[in-house]
Amino acid sequence: MASKWNMIVDVSRCDNCRNCFLATKDEHIGNDFPGYAASQPTQGHNWIDIERKERGSYPIVEAHFMPVMCNHCDDAPCMKAAKNGAISKRDDGIVIIDPEKSKGQKAIVDACPYGAVSWNEEKQIPQIWIFDAHLLDEGWKQTRAEQCCPTGVFRSLKIEDQEMQRIKEQEGLEVLQPELETKPRVYYKNLYLMTKCFVAGSVVANVEGIEECAESAEVILRLNGSEVARETTDIFGEFKIDKLDKNSGSYELEVNTDSSRSHSMEFELGDESLYLGVITLAEKQ
């Protein structure tokens, strides 16, 4: 089997420095690469963009960032919409929109369910991030986005599909909108930071009449009577339970310590993460 290019994007490492965005601009604005891509407009195109997601509420709030780009799908909807051979899928997995054959074909932009195809109004052509194919063909081992990233968000691999699937399972990688079945070649690590919810809270206990942070309290989360997670509070009495599905229903939370009475509460999880507030435990009698 032939080796093909894949990109792994680790959401947990992205800090929104936007070096990848700027490197792509630097490479393509004012530069034509015949057979690969026409020059990118100075404004309006984000071939690599950064999506932002805030989770939680005061005092436990997180912000995460996710680079998005053309997924170079193996079953690409844009290819089905293209006419006259305007889009080709290379043997190494990279999708190329021909800057000459694609003129006037705005339907290619509309066909992408990820919104990854940009329309060049001046040149009247659709354009995408080309996986730096022009550089890889010259012998480069990494894309410019990977080279310039200071936190190691990107990892490009040219391997056989079977090996890529092994890595996917081993590292828990996911693709965007898997229900579309477009077979993307861009995989995401720690995608739950963008797609899942967490619940958090602060636990305090009365110790001889003094309210103290309840360190090492046991927190049990149940859904429909079945335990889904178990955590312990940190030195500040705080806990966080992550990777919960949005709109997943009614939960029961139970908190226990050796010196306090057990405390239970119920809550409904919608499409946003929750801070459950301060949970005060009463002393055992």
Question: What does this molecule look like?
Answer:
The chain is an alpha+beta fold and 285 residues long. The protein folds into 2 domains: 4-194, Alpha-Beta Plaits (2-Layer Sandwich); 196-281, Sandwich (Immunoglobulin-like). The protein is built from 7 helices and 17 strands. The strands form 6 sheets. Strands 10, 11, 14 and 17 form a 4-stranded mixed β-sheet that branches. β12 and β13 form a beta hairpin. The mean pLDDT is 96.
Amount of helix: 10-25%
Low-confidence stretches: none
State the helix count.
Answer: 7
CATH class of the largest domain: Alpha Beta
- State the total count of DSSP E strands: 17
CATH topology of the largest domain: Alpha-Beta Plaits
| Mean pLDDT reading | 96
**Helix and strand pattern:** EHEEHEEHEEHHEHEHEEEEEEEE
Q: What class, by secondary structure content? A: alpha+beta
The end-to-end span amounts to 70 Å
Which CATH architecture of the largest domain would you pick? 2-Layer Sandwich
The share of residues in extended strands comes to 35-45%
Count of folded domains: 2
User: Outline, from the CA principal axes?
Assistant: elongated
Gyration radius over CA: 24 Å
Let me know the largest β-sheet: 4 strands, mixed
